[in-house]
Specification:
The structure is a homodimer of 101-residue chains. Chain A is α+β, with helices and mostly antiparallel strands. Chain A has a domain at 2-71: Winged helix-like DNA-binding domain superfamily/Winged helix DNA-binding domain (Arc Repressor Mutant, subunit A, Orthogonal Bundle), CATH 1.10.10.10. Helix content of chain A is 64%, strand content 14%. Chain A contains five helices and three strands. Chain A has a three-stranded antiparallel β-sheet. The first copy, chain A, is elongated, with a radius of gyration of 17 Å. Chain A starts with a helix and ends with a helix. At the A-B interface, helix 1, helix 2 and helix 5 of A face helix 1, helix 2 and helix 5 of B. Chain B binds a DNA duplex (30 and 30 nucleotides) through helix 4.
Chain lengths: 101, 101
DNA sequence: CAGCAAAACAACGTCATCGTGATACTGGGT
DNA sequence: ACCCAGTATCACGATGACGTTGTTTTGCTG
């Protein structure tokens, strides 16, 4: 339960999600992720390190570049499921509000 | 993306997950959750409020008690999926380690 | 109405995380 | 050997979340 919370925490940061989203199409090196997301280089590096430690992403140096790649693409299913639940929750909240008014 | 991160954050806290887990079996009042989790009353109340605001849980006063219930049980599917990914990530990390040694 | 248990709220200290700016490391090309 | 682009790391300040303690509200009961 402790560990599970930590795992969820990985996805609980907008910029980290943006980095992941940038990697949806396939492997990218750090600079490419920087360009795609508009985040600072230091920040992207940090988030990629976290994602690597979490086992979500794999680091692969290639010459002087370093490519990162999503290991198990089913993380995007997790994200999709969360998006679905989020929408449902929003709907539910509106319904609850309507029931009061 | 902003909102999605916030949603993930709901599940990124061990005690909050414990509260949710306590509610897996069905509706419970606050004191029951306190007993099941061993957390302080104030803390349980706080987490339940958060879960309510997030639209994960529904508040239903009944007499002098207040019952809370998980609205959409498929949140447990989300949790299950995350557990699965967590295990896979752990396995992958071990493999990567073995490849080095 | 007084008293009591359940639940919520407020204020506070503490700790973790985020993002930045500056600096170090690394490998390839000249 | 040197320089440069790419990447990683460090130190720092700011912000926000967590948990606790103490207090307040609420609704039942006698």
């Amino acid at each position: 339960m402790e560990a599970l919370a930590e795992y969820f925490k990985v996805f609980s940061e907008p910029n980290r999600l943006a980095v992941l989203e940038a990697l949806r199409g396939g492997p990218l090196n750090v600079t490419a992720v920087v360009d795609k997301t508009g985040l600072s280089q230091a920040l992207v590096s940090k988030h990629l390190k976290l994602l690597t430690i979490a086992g979500v992403v794999q680091r692969r140096p290639e010459g002087s570049l370093v490519f990162y790649e999503v290991i198990d693409k089913s993380v995007f299913k997790l994200i999709g499921q969360a998006e679905k639940l989020l929408l449902a929750a929003r709907r539910q909240q509106l319904d609850a509000l309507a029931a009061i008014l």
